[in-house]
Amino acid sequence: MTSQVGSQLFRRHETYAISYHTTVLLLPLGLYMYLKHFNQAADVFTLVFYYAAYPTCLVFWTILCRISPLHPLAHHPGPFWCKTSKIWWGLLTLRGYSHHRLRALHERGPNELPIRDPDTIGPLLGTSGVPKSPSMIGGTLASGEREHLHRRRPWNHAFASVAMKEYEPMITRRTRQLLDRLAEQNDILSLGKWLNYFSYDLIFGGSSELLRDGDANNIWALLNHVIVFENLILHLPWLGPYIGSIPGASGPLSTLVAHVHKISLARIERGSSTRDLFHYLNNEDLPDNPPPPTKQLVDDSILAIVAGADTTSSAPLRVIPCLATHPEAYAKFQAEVDKFFPPGEDFVALPEFREMHYLSKCPLRLYPPAPGGGQRKVPADANPVVIGSIVIPPGTCFWLHVYSLHRDTRNFTHPDAFWPDRWLVASGRIALSDALPPTSVLAPSSQLQHSTPSSKRPHTPTPVQEFTHNESAFRPFSHGPMNCAGKNLALLELRMVVCAILQRFRVTLAERLDPRDYEKGFEDYFAASRPVVPVVLEPRGATSHHFWLNEGGTVYIERLLLQLLHTPADRGFSFLIGYKSLQDTLKQYEENPKYQWLVIDSETG
Fold it and tell me: Where is this region: Disordered (predicted)?
């Protein structure tokens, strides 16, 4: 009887307080000792037996309740162990492949709990939608929904339209610094490492200089450990207080907190030299408001690193491998970059960034920054949420699984394909018959890195009537008022950084990359992991910095002298001969564009 009461108490009052857990677990023992007037050694055996039986019965009644046909979610299919406890799924997330597992489950059952039906996105996540679950609020290091809403306000200010304009000079400056550091690397490099440094420095303004000094404190190694730990706690939130109370159990998190605390204090002492994210988190834009407590600033800084720097650095890294393994898509995107930002011209955050469909949408659809989306919970004291045939009872948590939404054949034709042209076809910019054929990221590398262009290889065209493109299902940054607060900043950074890199460098893979290996290395720890992609960066195109070193400078002076000596007819004849010779030479090296560059290699000649 006591175990039944205990299971109902845990079911009706979900809390992560150790004191509550202790009360429910130890109160029956206290009552037993009181009623039995425990004072005899002979009662020890009975007491041990009773207390072994109590938790066993507690677990039994809990599992029985969850698998019972009377349970509110009994009609929703799913794995047996998922119905009994979140421990099974929490352990699965440690491997990083939960997004693949969840997508496979969706293929076998209806689109419910977790949900991948795009028609539910507005009602569930919109203005009058369902609030975030306690575990998601805890993930932002807030103690409850009210505090979460209060602490989100400065984040909304920080990413408003006015603030975004203020970030552009800072992002431009950091991007130039990134390009200069990349240009100094003469060998194979890990692009992800430098993008990590860029994002981290951008979050903390001038208080961090990883691009200049390197990661001497191993911040990103700590962050990778913390993300795995935090992802487990996201699914088993009741476990967090217990692990946190064990000395040394949360070592990497404690080290990261200490480091961020030090940087935060330095940033507070330095004051506001730039209007960075910290400027708004510290209420520096509201001089009449007192600054928040230091602990809140540290908590928000950690959140900015995990949800901001980590996901932002991963986004450009999704674009590069996709383009490098699809040469024709790379060429089309390079033409789009050169159209708005010719080599040698400075890159700025122009409105044209928003028109560059090739840049962000396709990689973000295949590899969203947070594949699992965000967990929501219908309040226990609210009415059931009814959307069509879906009924979500009070007290129920659910996920709108972004990865499954993006890779559903009902939302996107060829869902596993890197096919940027799908967005151009859907917007009416090109006809379906003119689009490059799609190539699955699950295909062997031999089908991608092929001597014959994909447009000339045999393939089955996609019939117009079978082309599906559901824009409402594209939600890499969630939806509604509780979506990713830094969405606009992430997209601006993504577009500016990728455009700047491709404007200045030709990116090639250092090793033959099999897209299937990259797909396997894409792991979900709430924030997606970043598979290592070694690349080689080669300077592209002539600039004023290189021009004087080339023959062009000599020829230019020579032509000025000849202009003084020859008649207009002679000059016209020489022009025709030279122009024809230049055309023939460029055509000769058409298959090897690097021989057309006007940049001297002083080492190899």
Answer: 441-466
Q: What share of the chain has pLDDT > 70, as a percent?
A: 68
Distances (CA, A) of 84 to 68, 455, 464, 576: 10, 51, 46, 82
CA nearest 311: which of 535, 529, 531, 93?
529
pTM here is 0.71
CATH T-level assignment (fold) for domain 135-441+468-530: Cytochrome p450 (1.10.630)
Tens digit of pLDDT for each residue in 285-313?
A: 888 888 888 878 877 877 777 666 666 67
> For tokens 């609030």, what's the residue?
131
Q: How far apart are CA 326 and CA 328, in angstroms?
A: 6
Give tens-digit pLDDT for 36-93: 655 555 566 666 766 677 777 777 777 777 777 777 666 666 777 677 777 766 777 7
- Burial of residue 547 (CB within 10 Å: 0-12, 13-18, 19+) is middle
Contact (CB, 8 A) for 182 and 194: yes
* Per-residue tokens: 591: 């298959």
- Tell me, what's the pLDDT at 132? 80
User: Which residues are 189's β-sheet partners?
Assistant: 535
For the chain, give every domain's residue range.
18-67, 135-441+468-530, 551-591
Q: Average pLDDT of 2-13? A: 66
CA–CA gap between residue 369 and residue 313 (Å, rounded): 10
Give the pLDDT confidence score for residue 406 in this predicted structure: 92
For 558, other C-beta atoms within 10 Å of its C-beta total 11
Extract the runs of DSSP E, i.e. beta strands, from 463-529.
505-509, 524-525, 527-528
Task: Yes or no: say if 382 and 401 are a contact pair by the CB < 8 Å rule.
Answer: no
Q: How confident is the model at residue 178 (pLDDT cuts 50, 70, 90)?
A: very high
The residues with which 398 forms a beta bridge, in sequence order, are 376
Number of residues written out for the chain: 605
Give the distance from CA 348 to its chain's centroid: 24
What's the rounded mean pLDDT across residues 322-335?
A: 86
The continuous run of DSSP H or E covering 537 comes out as strand 534-539
- SS3 (DSSP) at 275: coil
Q: What residues pair up with 439 in beta bridges, in sequence order? A: 418
> Mean pLDDT across the chain, nearest whole number?
75
Q: Give pairs for 324-328: CB < 8 Å, separation 24+.
A: 324/507, 324/508, 324/509, 324/513, 324/535, 325/418, 325/445, 325/448, 325/449, 325/509, 325/513, 325/515, 326/418, 326/439, 326/448, 326/454, 327/449, 327/453, 328/436, 328/453, 328/454, 328/455
Per-residue pLDDT at 474: 93
